[in-house]
Structure formats: structure tokens, C-alpha cells
């Protein structure tokens, strides 16, 4: 199921022993939008995956996953059949897992005057 969940927070002021404290009141609203018929699972991060999709004349997106992925040896008709144009990205990411880069701040150099004795 596809759910739409809204979280609303209202801040209420309460007086306790002369001190004013803000205490949030949280409410959740849930709405069922529909059912999901196709689920994709990735072994790596989904940001680095690429799904082959085709836009029809009515604007509907259809998956080309079953037409592109070869799970068994195919006959010649498979390769000669009609298929929408599928152009993969020119380059994929070299990394498939999250990496910490440990960025360092820029080094600020300053001139120190020399003392000559």
C-alpha cells in the first residue's frame, strides 16, 4: 500500500512553577493512496542504479526491465523484435556504497617575519 502520512506539531505553552515551558503536541494524519504493484529491490544504493523506462504516447511510464534483462539464452526473434529506444547514461558511478570523504578545511598560510640578529 502507498500511504500518505502527515505529522503536525502544535506548540503549547504551559506554566509550571512560574516558568513558561513549550510542550509540543504531535498529531498524525494517514491516508491510503493506493496499492503498489511493482517493487524494485537493489543490492546497492538506489541512487546509483538506473531503471530502463519508456514514456508512451499518453505519458504513461512503462518499465523495460523484462525486455532488457536477459535471464536465459534467447532466440533470434528476441533480438530482431521491436523495442523502444533505450540509451543508458554515458557513465555510471564507480562507487556503489556510501563513502566518508573526511574533507579537511583549507589550510590558511600566513607570513611570519624573520628575525635577523
UniProtKB/TrEMBL annotation:
A molecular function GO annotation = RNA polymerase III type 1 promoter sequence-specific DNA binding
Q: Which residues form the Transcription factor IIIC subunit Tfc1/Sfc1 triple barrel domain?
A: 1-51
Q: What's a BP term from Gene Ontology annotated to this protein?
A: transcription initiation at RNA polymerase III promoter
Name a single GO cellular component: transcription factor TFIIIC complex
Protein name, per record: General transcription factor 3c polypeptide 5
Tell me what organism the protein belongs to: Limosa lapponica baueri
What does the record give as the organism's lineage? Eukaryota, Metazoa, Chordata, Craniata, Vertebrata
